[in-house]
Amino acid sequence: MGVINVTPDSFSDGGLFLEADAAVDQGERLAGEGADLLDVGGESTRPGSEGVSAEEELRRVLPVVERLAGAGHRISIDTAKAGVARAALDAGAAIVNDVTAFRREPELAGLVAERGAGCVLMHMLGEPRTMQDDPRYDDVVSEVKAFLEERLAVAVDQGIAEQRILLDPGFGFGKTVEHNFELLRRLDEIVAIGRPVVVGISRKRSLGRILGDPEATTGPLSASLAAAVMAYERGATVLRVHDVRETVEALTVAQAAL
Ligand code: HH2
User: Fold this and answer.
1) What is the pLDDT of residues 204-220, one digit of tens each?
2) Does this model's pTM top 0.85?
3) From CA 99, how far away is CA 13, in angstroms rounded?
4) Probe residue for ligand 1, chosen from 240, 242, 244 as the CB with the greatest number of ligand atoms within 8 Å
5) Residue 203 known to be catalytic
6) Directed axis angle between helix 107-115 and helix 82-90, to 10°?
């Protein structure tokens, strides 16, 4: 899954793809490098983020989804808003990637069911504005697992076919560096739920911090690739990444040795 952030303020590439032309070019590039899925988002969820209106989010993402879906690419729309998801599905998106797992707008589940779309349900503790203020768990892996099982049951209850649901432990969403690495170490426990697992750890700050910079807000490519390989080995099915070519190469090597 290649990331296209149509935002001025995303943590690692804010402003680079805010114009539709630049975002579409980036999508074509990532697809050419081997992305099977392009994740288009118009609202940053970086720590401290306040969010944007549905109107602004739509203005950013809709032309990009229309053009990339129209060119035959498989698109996921990274949104928690039913209005944005509806327009993106109308424009040809196939999957709704909701970092709130239908908690922000519960009606989004019904929309996904009605359209026969796929969805990614992600774990987040709190909300982006405050999620990194001292997050605590007794056992992060079992709590994330229990949350994902509960959201999976809600989604199925709302009429979404189970085989269309993917789960994501939400690296960096209300988690310390230690929490993130515990989740990566024990990812097999999340995989054991039985649905494909999405891992989005590319460039995230925990990677920069484990390398020794306590103030890092991003992590380098080298660290992102190490994390991608670890996630793959532990059973992740979808890697949400900014650097597709390098990730495909790293995973090809990992696969050859598996
Ligand atoms: N991470 C981000 C956004 N959406 N979706 C899923 N399913 N999993 C993730 O880990 C995930 C996500 C944050 O990364 P990015 O989009 O690069 O940054 P920003 O939120 O600042 O736009």
Assistant:
1) 999 999 999 999 999 99
2) yes
3) 19
4) 240
5) no
6) 10
